[in-house]
Amino acid sequence: MNLHESEKIAGMLESEGYEKAESQSEADIIVFNTCCIRENAEDRAEGNIGALKKLKKTNKNLIIAVGGCMTQQNGYAEKLYKEFPFIDIIFGTHNLDGFRSLLSKRIDRNKSVIDVWDKEGDIREDTPKCRSSYPNAWINIVYGCNNFCTYCIVPYVRGRERSRKTEDIVNECKKVISEGYKEITLLGQNVNSYGHDLGTSDFSSLLKEINKIEGKFRLRFMTNHPKDFNEELIKTMSECEKICKSVHLPVQSGSNRILKLMNRHYSREDYFDKVSLLRKYIPDIAITTDIMVGFPGETEEDFLDTMDLVKRIKFAGAFTFIYSKRSGTPAAKMEPQVDPEISKERIMKLISVQDSVNRSYSKSYNGKTIEILCEGYDDKKNKYLGRDVFGRMAYFDCKENLIGQFVNVRISKTGGISLLGEKE
Ligand code: SAH
Ligand code: SF4
Question: Does residue 126 sit within a domain?
Answer without folding.
Answer: no
